[in-house]
Structure formats: structure tokens, C-alpha cells
Amino acid sequence: MFESMRKDFPILHEQIHGKPLIYFDNAATTQKPESVLDAVHTFYTRYNANIHRGVHLFTERATQLYEQARATVAASIGADAKEIVFTKGTTESINFVASTWGKQYIHAGDEILITELEHHANLVPWQQLAREKNAFLRYIPVNSDGTLQLDRLADLVTPNTKLIALSHSSNTLGVHNDMKAVHAYAKQVGAALLVDAAQSAPHQRLDVRALDCDFLAFSGHKMLGPTGIGVLYIKHTLHERLEPYQYGGGMVFEVDLYRSQWRKAPHAFEAGTPPIAQAIGLAAAIEYLQEHVDVQTLQSHEAALCARIIDGLKMLKKVQLFGPLEQLRSQGHLVSFAIDGMHAHDVATYLSYQGICVRAGHQCAQPLARKLGIQAAVRASFYLYNTLAEVDLFLESLEHIIKTYG
Ligand SMILES: Cc1ncc(COP(=O)(O)O)c(C=O)c1O
């Protein structure tokens, strides 16, 4: 469907172990099209300068490109440019919220509600904050297929709930979470809502007004952009009530020996030299997606890849599939499984010798793996440039591996 676009991704022509690359590790990070590589290269070769700090032509150009990138990101999620803070990734975006809003507004006895399927990035910062503040960390439990027990919200959301933070889509099992149900409960008790969109931003059109969330976080590198750039959307109504995350140059308006004044958002939240080239690269990635990818077509393409791999894996002996398989067939972008008697790392290593990149392990979600009794899983995760032919080759290789080593 998007096969003609493969030529835009130079790395897809590489080989590993003498075999054509089949890259099924997109939930970890995606490959980059030429236009993103060019945007970064052009910045460094033609405009490189620090931003917001000078009057020479290069600094003006660099500042303009950086602020244009912010506007592009904002427009892509229905936000205002001043609501976009650049970070180095989802992890930093969530830590930002924990160490600013969390430190200011979470008090002893308050409750933070997350889910059992969170990536460690949306778990450990809240765990630490709860410990520091003598607050309580509560979990929305998961069913055996990884879907959330949303009927438990009625008990779990209380007047003490100050924050609900959850992933829009799970990096381990591909479960897509119903934000509407959660949002309704958050609003009922006046809790803030944080959406970890690391696994949804690459695959769907996000609209922060429709989600009506207070914070939303995602990473550029999982949606064709460079590493080292993340986004934190902060609803404008919170700006005045939020302390800066870090202090130093760039975020100050005036500095005296004993007091300083901050600039307005978003600059108050970006101390020091920001990831300029990376922000420009992310904007190029968003423009590439907007220009070449219809989101509905992308979702059907990824769902078709999921359906094919699920059907194929079901035919193989010793394979145990995880996750809500019916949901994945219609809106998935990744599939996780294990093979009886073989460690996931061994399976991933054997696949690597066949040119196939997959992820193996607990996928940075140890509590979920423990709850579901998964020691380690193999995860195949897709993006636009993957093909049904690649899935078929993957299935052939896996069958061979199971027959040979299983
Ligand atoms: C759901 C989810 N949240 C957070 C993260 C952390 O993202 P990053 O490593 O880019 O900060 C990931 C990365 O895999 C993820 O899948």
C-alpha cells in the first residue's frame, strides 16, 4: 500500500547478516525518510546557530525554523504553539510533569491513578512522586488480554484522585485505550489527565481538544523523526500555575542577584539550548506524514499486517499469542508472542540472523509482564513501510527456527 514510499528510507536498502533488512521494531523507534535526514543535514550545513540569543542572520533563521517546528507540531495535534514544550522524549515529558505539576499539586493522602499496562516511563516517575509525597499510587487493573478493567473506575476514582495518567496505546500488547471513559471520571472529580501518546501519535491523528487532556507526551523518534526530541503538550490554563522544570539561560526574562523572572510559556519551560536540529527534523517528519500518509489507510495497512501475522502465528506449533487479538486485527500496529521452550532473546537472535529485527523481553513494562505471567515476549511492531511479503518471510523464518531449535 505504501510500498512505493520505501525508497524514501535509505536504511531499508541495508542488509543484515547478508539478508535484506526486515524492520519490525517500530514501536521502539522508526526509520527516517530522506526528507527528515535532509532537514537535519541542511540545518547543520546551512543555518546552524543557537536560538533566541543573538541578532545575526543565522540565529534569526535558526530561531525561526525552531519556532516554525513548534507551530507544525502544535497544529498537528490541535494545540496552540505556546502549549508545546520540546523535551528529549516521552520519558522526559512525563518526568517534567511529575517534577513540576506533581511536586506542586500532589500532597499527602492524594491519589495518582495509572494502569497496570504502563511503560516504565509512565510508572516510575509517579511511584517516586507518591513515595516522596506520601501519596497513593493506584492502578486500573488489566484483563488477561491486557485490556483495561474500566468498570473498576467507579471504585478507583475518588475525590482524592488528583491525576490520571495512562497510555493511549500499549507498547507491549498493542491495546488501544478508551480515553473517553477515563476522561469522564477525571472531570467528575477534577483530576488532571495525562496521556502518554508515545504509541498512538505515530499511528493516528491526535486532537488535544477532543481528548481534553491537561498533558500529552510523545517522542519524535517513534514517528519518523530524530532521536532526542519529545513533545509535552501543556494545556494553556495550567501555564501560570506551573513552576519551571529547569532553571538557567533561555527561560529567564530578567535575572538579579537574588531573584529572577521567567519568560512566558513555552519558553519558561525550556531552559538551556534546546534540541534545535531535532525539532526541525520532527517537523519534517510530521510534514512527510501529512503529505504522504492518510491516517485511515495507515491504520488499515497496519491492521492487515497484524491480522496476517496473527493468522500465521496461530498456525505454528508452540506459539502463544498475547493481547486482544480481535482488537489488533482491526486497529493494531504490533503483536507480541512467546514460543514454548525457547527464550524470547534466543528467538530474536535467530531472527536477526535472518535479517529480521524484533524486540524481545519485558518491553519496559515489568509489572504487566508479571501480572500476565509473561516471562519474556517477542514483539513485532509495524509502520507504514512494512509489507505483507515481509510478514510472510518472517513467518517462514520463524517456522524454520522453531523446527530447528524449538
Ligand atoms: C508507551 C510508551 N511510553 C513511553 C515510552 C518512552 O519513550 P522514550 O524512550 O522515547 O522517552 C515508550 C517507549 O517505548 C512507550 O512505548
Shape: globular
Number of strands: 17
Mean pLDDT figure: 96
Radius of gyration: 22 Å
Largest sheet: 7 strands, mixed
Ends apart, CA distance between termini = 34 Å
State which percent range the strand residues make up.
15-25%
Query: What spatial order of strands do you see in the largest sheet?
Result: 4-10-9-8-7-5-6
SS-based structural class? alpha/beta
| Ligands bound to this protein structure | pyridoxal-5'-phosphate
Secondary structure: helix percent: 25-40%
Could you spell the SSE succession in H and E letters? EEEHHEHEHEHEHEHEEEEHHEHEHEEHEH
List unreliable stretches of 5+ residues: none
Number of helices: 13
Describe this structure in words.
With 406 residues, this protein is of the alpha/beta class. Helix content is 39%, strand content 17%. It has helices at 34-47, 57-76, 90-105, 124-133, 153-156, 179-189, 208-211, 276-292, 295-315, 325-331, 344-353, 366-372, 388-405; strands at 15-16, 19-20, 22-23, 84-87, 111-115, 136-140, 161-167, 192-196, 215-219, 230-234, 252-255, 260-262, 319-322, 334-339, 356-357, 359-361, 377-381. A seven-stranded mixed β-sheet has the order 4-10-9-8-7-5-6, with helices on both faces. A four-stranded antiparallel β-sheet has the order 13-14-17-16, with helices on one face. Helix 4 links the parallel strand 5 (111-115) and strand 6. The longest helix is centred in the last third of the chain and has 21 residues, at 295-315. The mean pLDDT is 96. Pyridoxal-5'-phosphate binds at residues 89-91, 119, 121-122, 167, 171, 196, 198-199, 219.
